[in-house]
Each structure stands twice: as C-alpha cells, then as structure tokens.
Amino acid sequence: MAQRYYTVSWDQLHRDGKALAWRLVGAGPWKGVIAITRGGLIPAAIVARELDCRIIETVSVVTYDEEVKGDPRIVKTAAAAGDGEGWLLLDDLVDTGTTARVVRAMLPKAHFATVYAKPAGKPLVDTFVTEVSQDTWILFPWDTEQQFVPPIARSAGGK
Ligand SMILES: O=P(O)(O)OC[C@H]1O[C@H](OP(=O)(O)OP(=O)(O)O)[C@H](O)[C@@H]1O
Ligand code: HPA
Ligand SMILES: [Mg+2]
C-alpha cells in the first residue's frame, strides 16, 4: 500500500488538465489525441476540448488491479495512428513507467503527455503538469466518493 495519498477532485483535475493543454498548445498541430484507457479518457476529453481537436483514438493497457501492479496487458491498439507521428498520446499519470514503455513501443513517434508524474516514470513523458513522490498514491475522482468523517476530537480519542 502507498504511504500517503494525494486526493484529486473533479475541479482540480479540470484545472490541471487545462494547465496541460496550455503546455501543449504551441507544440501542435495534432492529427488527433490518443487516450490510454481508462485513466487517460477524462484528461483526453479536457485537453482535446481546449486544443479544439475532435479526433480521439484509444489504446488500452491494463497494468494494475486497484493498487496491485501486474504485468502490462495490451487490450486494444490504435491502428489509425500508425507509429504515432503527429499524434498526442495522453494518460492520467506515469508511476513506474511500465504502461508508458509498452505504449511508447507501439507509438514511438507520438508526443506523450500526462497530468501527473512520479519520479520513476517522469523520464518517459514529454510533457506533464504536477510531480508527486514515488510513495504517493493519487486518488482520482472516478475512483473515490465523498463520505462522512467523524470530528477530529472523536477520532483523536478525546471522547
Ligand atoms: O506507470 P505505471 O506504473 O504503469 O502506472 C500508470 C498507469 O497505471 C494506471 O492504469 P491502470 O493499469 O490502473 O488501468 P486503468 O487506467 O484502466 O485504471 C494509470 O492510469 C496509468 O495508465
Ligand atoms: O498513484 C496512482 N493512482 C491511481 N492509479 C495508479 N496507477 C498507478 N499508480 C497510480
Ligand atoms: Mg491507465
């Protein structure tokens, strides 16, 4: 299990997604966006909207079951994108870089961008917005929900 958590709200993801679009706007034009599903789908929608890009392809790689990492499994390729030249490849984050390595081998000429990056995966990304430490687990809004928490006085054992 991760040692700490970094919770990302929908609002923050939207803001960070737009910050990513600002970093990418001068690097185009793009033939289209390729989202690495599933985590890259929402960032891809936000960035594609800001870059005025209507063409969205997907590739699917499964690497984790919740917080447990396994061997990466390619579930879907993006044949229309060829070697990726002129395409913008998007994911929510790079952690160990395992998924990025697999996808980069499939689309070596694509520009690879993520919203968040951890140190081990950072060298594989062309553009990202926010770095978090390797022992931090990012909690995305689609994986979480709001719930009641007891007052501090009670959880600290005061009452
Ligand atoms: O750098 P890595 O160590 O490979 O980790 C990053 C990848 O792991 C997560 O995907 P996941 O395999 O959980 O699939 P999902 O996007 O469908 O949730 C995340 O969305 C990235 O794609
Ligand atoms: O920190 C993370 N958060 C969510 N999914 C992930 N997949 C790999 N690392 C992470
Ligand atoms: Mg993913």
Automatic annotation (TrEMBL):
Cofactor(s) the record lists: Mg(2+)
UniProt-annotated binding residues for xanthine = D95, I138
Q: Is Electron transport found in the keyword set?
A: no
Q: Which residues of this UniProt protein bind guanine?
A: D95, I138
GO MF annotation, one: xanthine phosphoribosyltransferase activity
Catalysed reactions, semicolon-separated: XMP + diphosphate = xanthine + 5-phospho-alpha-D-ribose 1-diphosphate; GMP + diphosphate = guanine + 5-phospho-alpha-D-ribose 1-diphosphate; IMP + diphosphate = hypoxanthine + 5-phospho-alpha-D-ribose 1-diphosphate
What topology does it adopt in the membrane?
Peripheral membrane protein
Question: Which SUPFAM superfamilies does the UniProt record give?
Answer: PRTase-like
Q: Where does 5-phospho-alpha-D-ribose 1-diphosphate bind?
A: R38, G39, D91, D92, L93, V94, D95, T96, G97, T98, T99
Binding, GMP? D95, T96, G97, T98, T99, W137, I138
Q: Which UniProt keywords apply?
A: Cell membrane, Glycosyltransferase, Magnesium, Membrane, Metal-binding, Purine salvage, Transferase
Q: Identify the domain of life.
A: Bacteria
Residue positions annotated to bind Mg(2+) are D92
**Enzyme Commission number(s) from the entry:** 2.4.2.22
What pathway, per the record?
Answer: Purine metabolism; XMP biosynthesis via salvage pathway; XMP from xanthine: step 1/1; Purine metabolism; GMP biosynthesis via salvage pathway; GMP from guanine: step 1/1
| Cellular compartment(s) | Cell membrane
Q: Which residues form the Phosphoribosyltransferase domain?
A: 9-146
Subunit info?
A: Homotetramer.
Q: Which family does it belong to?
A: Belongs to the purine/pyrimidine phosphoribosyltransferase family. XGPT subfamily.
Annotated function: Purine salvage pathway enzyme that catalyzes the transfer of the ribosyl-5-phosphate group from 5-phospho-alpha-D-ribose 1-diphosphate (PRPP) to the N9 position of the 6-oxopurines guanine and xanthine to form the corresponding ribonucleotides GMP (guanosine 5'-monophosphate) and XMP (xanthosine 5'-monophosphate), with the release of PPi. To a lesser extent, also acts on hypoxanthine.
Q: Output this protein's name.
A: Xanthine-guanine phosphoribosyltransferase
- Origin species, per record, is Sabulicella glaciei
Q: Which gene encodes it?
A: gpt
